Amino acid sequence: MASNQTHRNHYVPQWYQRRFLPAGVNRFFYLDLNPEVVKTAPGRSFIRSALLHWGPNRCFFQEDLYTMKLGAWTTDTIERRFFGPIDDRGKSAVHFFADYTVSDESHDALKHMMPYMDAQRLRTPRGLDWLKLVARNL
Fold first, then answer.
1. Domain ranges in the chain?
2. Of 19, 40, 47, 130, which one is least surrounded by beta carbons within 10 A?
3. Contact 1, 23 (CB under 8 A)
């Protein structure tokens, strides 16, 4: 396993999450639907708070979500060569349309916005599960 391989895969890019934060705010109120049960001593435990205050680096990610594995060999090619370039081009398109004015850049921004939007459905854990199901049925 390569040491520079990405393992923390954000299915909602951090730059996109930050667009929803008001100026001067850097964390969301994040609801954990399955808060962890912590055992403190034999017969004693407590449930962690379901309401968390987290920054984008801790939200909307899953460890090794896009990691391909074959035995002990792993690669993050899907993240680096597929979602990475789509996100990079999508980021500039999202910024362009957020401050939209008709210009010569409109065509290029639209050309990059469509693949970015398409990728959003498939890159989530639910979307990847759907893709596995469809692939298995083929």
1. 8-137
2. 40
3. no
Q: Give the N- to C-terminal CA distance of the chain in Å, as an integer.
A: 31
Q: Is 30 exposed, middle or buried (0-12, 13-18, 19+ CB in 10 A)?
A: middle
Report how far residue 54's alpha carbon sits from residue 72's, in angstroms, rounded to the nearest whole number. 33
pLDDT band, very low/low/confident/very high, at 138 (cuts 50, 70, 90): low
Per the document, the length of the chain is 138
Distances (CA, A) of 20 to 50, 89, 98, 118, 123: 21, 19, 12, 20, 20
Nearest to 13 by CA among 102, 83, 95: 83
Quick check: 7 and 64 in contact, CB under 8 A?
yes
pLDDT > 90? residue 76? yes
Measure the CA–CA gap between 53 and 82, rounded to whole angstroms.
Answer: 31
Q: Enter the pTM of the model.
A: 0.78
How far is the C-alpha of 104 from the C-alpha of 14, rounded, in Å? 28
Angle at 66 between CA 10 and CA 129, to 5 degrees: 95
